[in-house]
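Record 1 of the preview.
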Amino acid sequence: MQLIAVFLLFFGLGFWLIPLIRDYAVRKKFVDIPDHRKVHKTLIPALGGVAIYICFVLSFVYCWEQINSSNIWILFAGSAIVITGIIDDIKPQKAILKLSIQILSAIAVVCLGDYRLYSMSGTFGIYELNYWLSILISIFILITLVNAQNLIDGINGLASSLGILFFAFFAYTYFHSGNTLFLVISLSFIGSLLAFLRYNLIKPTIFLGDTGSTLIGFVSAVFLIDFLNFPDAAKRELGIINPYGILLSLFSIPLFDTFRVACLRLLKQKSPFSPDKTHIHHLFLRLDFQHYHITGILILANMIIVTIALIFQQQLGDTLIISFLLGLFVFGFFILEFFIAKKFKMRYDEQLTLEKFRNFIADYWYLFFSIIVFVLPFQRWATSIPILVYTFFWLFSFDNRKVNLRDMSKFYILVPSSLFFVSIFYYFIVELNIHKVLDNVLRYLPFLLFPLFLFLKKEYFSLKKWHSILAFFLIGILTFSFILFGIVLIKYVSGFRSDIFIQNESIISNIPTIYYSLLLCFAAMVTMYLRKSSIKILQVPTISFLILTFLTAIMILIHSKVGFIALTLILSFGGLIQWFQNKRIQPSIIVLVLALSYTFIFIYKSEKIDFGYLQSSSIEVTKRITQWQHALTMIEQNPVLGYGSQYLNLLNTTASDLLNCHNQYLESWIEFGFVGLLGLIMSFSLSLYQAFRSQDYFYMGYIFLIAYYSLFESLFTNQTGIIFFSVFNSLFLLKTRLRIKTINKQH
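->
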């Protein structure tokens, strides 16, 4: 009952204070003036956060006996941020001034109040953090959440409703942990923000302003850090097993929206802090939603995300929750952009018909390919949902009246499907094994799926679509690589160096190292290729140099010798081709020199450095050579028909290791006989023939890359390899066929 009384006290206080502050601001003309990037059209005061701050201060007064020298810094730092916000709401200040105050406030709380992240409790293999690193991470969390919450405050009720959601979670945790001060602070925010919604959500007469949004972001960030420092047993008692995934889901709307907007601004060569109207609420406004509709939709979406994360946290874990959220938001923003484009395409004809909807989906098929390639590096199954979504929309927009099977001009797209048909033919005709037929249909279906989609739909291909798909692939690789690099850096600085070079990629995913090295090599090719695209940021030599350097560093980090050799060749040939075209030293050549210099130092100075992964790497090489030898012996005994469904058992019985061939050529030959090897070579050869005919050096490099990696890994036993080859090879074939037509017309 006492807690209810406290909540009602702050609700009533906020309900009484807000009209007084509003009327005072109007009299003094402290109002928010509309401009080109704001959504309101009238003069409205933006000091609603002052009422929230007063309730925040009174919560300390209410719990005065429990205040100590540590948490008093929350009050002081929060007050500094609020004062800055009030000044900015009355007369806008420079961003650098506001950021400086935020940094000083964060330093005060982290260093003087000692509210910093001490440990990651074994998440990603990280336990106690280095002192200075924990300070930097804590300051980064505070600054990020303050600004994310400030940026999301663009429509009525959104920032305050998110604040209610955040502090409801913290009120629950502090009620059970017994921290009365933080519980009362949480109730003060909930009560005052609920009162504020009365004057802001439907017919707004006052705004929250920077005063309120930054205070919400700051205090919730402090509580987030404090909660992460809870003992593991206390977290489990609250029903939270994976705190990082849960908290990311709680703050998902402001964080992912800020990340997306910053990326878009950088791609346009603008400052990530430059104001515009590209936030998620602006997208909804362009679809003619009302403010309270948007707020309701986003709060409901956030609650659903948190609920899913809580229900499935034990099955998913932190990594998969983060991967799920990332993919979900990429898909969600695609859908929003999709409907916005549809709306403006129809502005002269507002009647929406099923035929128009189907045609529009057919025009934007490449967006779904972009989603698929973006999530490729994250998890083996990460592409499954985007593929299903794309399949659904493909079926929805399919028009059999436009299909002419007598038109043979695009049958070349079905070339990759030879791999699919070899396996089906073998198990259905030779072995009569229906179970294996079904198993291989599910395994190899993408080899038929993507080429068939493009063939039957007669998709129109343009360089803009092609560049969009490649750019999203590159963003996906860089996003994953930045996460990986950050985790490894934290481990290294915090002293967890014994396994720093062993299976780094397995920290956040389950895709084998060699597949990552393949994706990194192709990402390097994409970076060089997109230098001549319409994407301005990738045309800058410095950006290209930085991306190639970073990809090379990640290749070294995952210690893939096969990948490092391939990357060296890519940088060499790519740099030479670009030099002959432009007569200038290319970034790829500089990166190559740096990489080779590193290799030289590594070879001659390795005795001074304790790199324990070398021994394990040598063991893996020995295992592969052993598997190749046993596979060749089995092939000699039965070179024509192969061993079918028994090949893996026989191979491992002979080699005494549970491994596949680690060679796609041997894998196809030993499983399906000589016909399997022939199908694989035919698929590569016909694709390479198309690349040579169209003089597409990028496609040639891609096929050589696949052929090279097939020597060291059974690429098509893993979903990542199957999706990677079938998607990109189908698109390459579609692109080069159109290019062949252009060349023929010119001659």
